[in-house]
């Protein structure tokens, strides 16, 4: 059985590549993410009443990785990148149907010259196609007593420090006001692949139009340089 869907909207986010995007929504709330609705869904009627909800479910396509197909077993980063679980016991991007589902805060609904939803805490790549939007209904969907399997709580956080050079560069940039906080929240998540521990290595993460160079030694991430 085959079904075809079309995108109802597209994500505009500071995450310009997969590396560094938080592994789940709500872990990094500094990211300013916008969902732009596409015609014919960009009519105010389609979102009437939505602003009364604080959170929405975003159904989207893992468009950047879908060409790589799927495997029945995956290695979740939370299990250290070695142990395998079934694809349907994971939130992995490589799935039989490349559909993602994120619960995010709805910070605002903007109508006028199209329709835009302002989202906080999204884990979505810039350009992600969105196939559906639904309001989150706490009394039906909140399950505080639910078992979380191998994901039993938020991941440990790294401490983030800035080099003198990076601080000077940050001060000189005409960067979005949330850049510093965004960098700190993204690096605190430890974006490295689960199996990697190379204190001499310099990593780069793309946020907005900036490449943030950083290193990680023990539990401290240091921002080394910001390249425009
Ligand atoms: N919350 C969603 C879910 O559970 O379906 C996504 C979870 S998935 C583990 C989160 C990761 O998806 C992010 O860290 C990022 O690397 C990746 N991602 C986000 N947008 C993507 C896209 N459009 N294409 C491919 N990968 C994407």
From TrEMBL:
Cited Pfam families: TrmO_C, TrmO_N
* Keywords for the protein's UniProt record, in alphabetical order: S-adenosyl-L-methionine
Q: Does the keyword S-adenosyl-L-methionine apply?
A: yes
PROSITE patterns in the cross-refs: TSAA_1, TSAA_2
**InterPro entries per UniProt:** TrmO-like_N (IPR023370), TrmO_C (IPR041369), UPF0066_cons_site (IPR023368), YaeB-like (IPR040372), YaeB-like_sf (IPR036413), YaeB_N_sf (IPR036414)
Domain spans labelled TsaA-like: 5-145
**Protein family (similarity comment):** Belongs to the tRNA methyltransferase O family.
UniProt cross-references to PANTHER family, sorted A to Z: TRNA (ADENINE(37)-N6)-METHYLTRANSFERASE
Q: What is this protein's record name?
A: tRNA (N6-threonylcarbamoyladenosine(37)-N6)-methyltransferase TrmO
Tell me which species this is from. Answer: Chromobacterium subtsugae
